[in-house]
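Entry, Tuesday afternoon. Goal for today is a structural model of the target with S-adenosylmethionine bound, before we commit to ordering more compound. Inputs were pasted exactly as handed over by J.K., no edits. I checked the ligand SMILES twice against the vendor sheet because last time a stereocentre got dropped in transcription.
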Amino acid sequence: MFFLKSSEQNHSTHLQVIKDLNFNNIKVVESLDQINGVYLLEYNNMLSIADVDNPKVLPIAVNFLKPNFKKRLTGSQVRSELLNKALGKKHNYKTLLDATAGMGVDCMIFAALGLKVQAYEKSEAIYLLLRDGLDRARNDDRLSEIINRVNLNFGNSLNHKGEVDVLYLDFMFNKADKKAKSKKDMEAFKKITNIPSDEELLEEFKSYIGFKFKRLVFKRPLKAEVLKVGHFSHSVEGKAIRYDIYLPS
Ligand SMILES: C[S@@+](CC[C@H](N)C(=O)[O-])C[C@H]1O[C@@H](n2cnc3c(N)ncnc32)[C@H](O)[C@@H]1O
């Protein structure tokens, strides 16, 4: 992984984080010629990810400040999210472990629903993108209140200790997405995170089912098989995906 430094920008915050966290796999370079594959850069004042092999695809950042996204997090809209349905009616859940934070969309939805979220991301690049997205959104009046409920950690969530009310899992899977643009967008991500095989997924799931939770919400492709591990309760179905709900055994 590379970080493209530009002479016109002051990257001190990002470079400091990379240094403080010992992200030694991220090479700081000053020219595109030194890069192969995927790289981080500052684009429109946002830490972003781009791919030298797909120069036509615009760099991608985590931007919670987009008006549509902010609107999605407001009262009645956020309550109509499928994830809210996945939490169940009239629940009293207060804490959630987002074991697969990614670009933080789901994490923000849970926090907007009032849950205190412990989020983990194990990819250095994705962690940096999400951290930058959260930091930029902290200055926004409405978002800051939501972000105060989010604690982002770098690392493997399998190492998390302690009980949570809700455990949320969303591993990468191949989406039946017909839009060529979003497929190209995803290519950069596929290069840095792997899509687990069925066997790997089952093994990981077996570990998470051993965590202490009151409810486990597992995002799955609509047509995928239900993993018969632990106490499967029911599914909450959307148009393209579903949430499988597991309860303590
Ligand atoms: C499909 S994405 C999650 C998308 C996220 N729900 C969102 O709304 O943006 C899966 C992410 O989980 C991360 N991940 C997978 N296994 C993990 C683990 N054991 N610990 C921490 N992060 C993990 C991957 O690096 C990837 O960024």
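The radius of gyration is 18 Å.
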